[in-house]
Amino acid sequence: MSDARATHGAGASGFPPGFYWGTATAAYQIEGAPRADGKGESIWDHFTHTPGKIARGETGDVADDHYHRWQDDLDLMQRLNLNAYRFSISWPRIFPDGYGSLNEAGLDFYSRLIDGMLARGIEPFATLYHWDLPQPLQDKGGWTNRDTAKAFADYAGVMARRFGDRVGHWITLNEPCVTTVLGHVTGEMAPGEKNPALILPVAHHQLLAHGLAIQAIRAESPRPTDAGITLNLAYIEPASDREEDVAAAKLFSGAWQDIYLEALYRQRYPEEIETILRMLGAPDDLIQPDDMATIAAPTDFIGINYYSRNIVRAGQNGSLLPEVVPASGALTVMGWEVYPQGLRDLLLHVHQTYKPPRIYVTENGAAYPDTLAPDGAVHDPDRTRYLRLHFDATREAIAAGAPVEGFFVWSLLDNFEWAHGFEPRFGVIYVDYATLDRHIKDSGRFLAKVAATNGARLDAE
Ligand code: FCB
Fold first, then answer.
1. In CATH, which superfamily holds the domain spanning 18-452?
2. Which residue has the higher pLDDT, 129 or 460?
3. 426 ligand 1 Cβ < 6 A
4. 18 and 4 Cβ atoms separated by less than 8 Å
5. 135: CA distance to ligand 1 center in Å?
6. Residue 88: CA count within 13 A, CB half-sphere
7. Ligand 1 contacts CB of residue 418 (under 6 A)
8. Would you give the distance in Å from CA 222 to the centre of its chain?
9. Is there a contact between 143 and 91 (Cβ–Cβ < 8 Å)?
């Protein structure tokens, strides 16, 4: 909790005393049990069961079966010496219809999970929305409908009232830009819409949901909270100094991330982006009088998910849409460039430009093609290297003044990687999907040493 954390100053290792070392997961990616104990359908249940949407037709119906194996998974976190865990709460387990009648059995699951963390000395960081919108809300327009923001705030308030005695850290939304762009423009992710006119409405309603939820969390929690939002930020650079590439990078950055940062910290959308988005068709009355003040109410932290750099150039053949240059150099299975200095520079940019009271790296990690050896070992030197470089980049940002107070590796377990299915393995723990057995990878052992020494052993293998 914030009040117990007296200092931003780095300790001997370069990380502040009490730094949170954790892993992050999301409900749909690990839990399985889509209908257990009264859970309602989410847009991801719906989307994964729509033919053609997911690689190899895979679904999260079983995933890591964490819903039934959560005690073992918490034990594994303890073996990795982790003192924090970022998990997400599945909204349709709590409100099967998105609002209205509360499902006590769903609440009980998370209540036991939270107690299990505390019993093991693991600080809970709860994400309220990691993309699994209740399908009945989608049927009413989902994030294109302003009422969804209100329903989210009600749900957030109930969570703070029921769990706020034990959970102090709340993340409202995970990566609203992904819901906006991949969920509503490219259609790669649920709900699978393909309509650029939805960018501004979907972004705005999510931001409004965040702002209303912060109010609800503070109003309903029985004790002071540490509440914020998690954004996916890339390190964005123009492909050249040419004016059109610089403009393309600015447009890309504006639509992908600056609309969120500027709204949250400056109470506005970048002017040229709003103009373009309105030309695409956003309704005139979308932004109501108090909305921007609600969205920009101060939060306690920003969560940053960082994976890679994007080099952007002007659209070819006269296209107005910016293009991301295919990455080269060291790439992960996702085709993402390994670019740790981007994390350092982004942390410093956010610190210097927006001055959030504190920052958590709420996700960072890499997918590599792991194999399980007959003796149960998984040797994943590339992932260990990736993590070491990003821990080091974070340490550099802290040394330069960024108030970073925690780092959550994506992910605890190999899991269901959305439209890519199970092929990309991001875990520091290997999951054998045939048996659901877990095996700690070498990178997990590395993380355990780093966590045990608060980052003093970044050279540990
Ligand atoms: C992030 C998501 C997370 C996971 C990682 C690889 O964008 O928040 O659920 O898929 O990427």
1. Glycosidases (3.20.20.80)
2. 129
3. yes
4. yes
5. 21
6. 27
7. yes
8. 26
9. no
Q: Ligand 1: which residue has its CA nearest to atom 10? A: 417
Three-state SS across 221-233?
CCCCCEEEEEEEC
Q: What is the pLDDT of residue 461?
A: 59
Single pTM value for the model: 0.97
Q: How far is CA 32 from the centre of its chain?
A: 19
User: For residue 119, what are the contacts with CB-CB under 8 A and spacing of at least 6?
Assistant: none
Question: Does ligand 1 have an atom closer than 6 angstroms to the CB of 26?
Answer: yes
pLDDT tier for residue 318 given thresholds of 50, 70 and 90: confident
Residue 351 pLDDT: 98
What 3-state class would DSSP assign to 363? strand
First to last CA, the chain: 31
Ligand 1 pocket test, pick from 23, 132, 175, 361 with the greatest ligand atom count within 8 Å of Cβ, gives: 175
Is the beta carbon of 337 within 6 A of some atom in ligand 1? Answer: no
Do residues 39 and 90 lie in contact, with contact meaning Cβ atoms separated by under 8 Å? yes
- 89-118 pLDDT, tens digit per residue, is 999 999 999 999 999 999 999 999 999 999
One-letter amino acid of 394: T
Active site residues: 175, 363
Mutation test residue for ligand 1: of 175, 363, 417, the one with most atoms within 8 Å of CB: 363
- DSSP H helices in 64-196: 66-79, 91-94, 104-119, 135-138, 146-163, 176-184
**Other residues' Cβ atoms within 10 Å of the Cβ of residue 2:** 16
Beta strands in 306-425 (DSSP E): 309-313, 323-324, 359-364, 404-410
Q: Please write the tens of the pLDDT for every residue from 431-447.
A: 999 999 999 999 999 99
Residue 256 sits at the vertex; the CA angle it makes with 195 and 148, to the nearest 5 degrees, is 60
Amino acid identity, position 413: L
In the prediction, which pLDDT does 5 show? Answer: 42
| Distance (Å, whole) CA 161 – CA 158 | 5
The two most distant CA atoms of the chain are separated, in Å, by: 63
How far is 26 from 3, CA to CA, in rounded Å? 27
The whole-number pLDDT of residue 1 equals 41
Would you mind telling me the total number of residues written for the chain in this entry?
461
pLDDT at 319: 83
Closest-CA residue to 455 (of 2, 6, 16, 4):
16
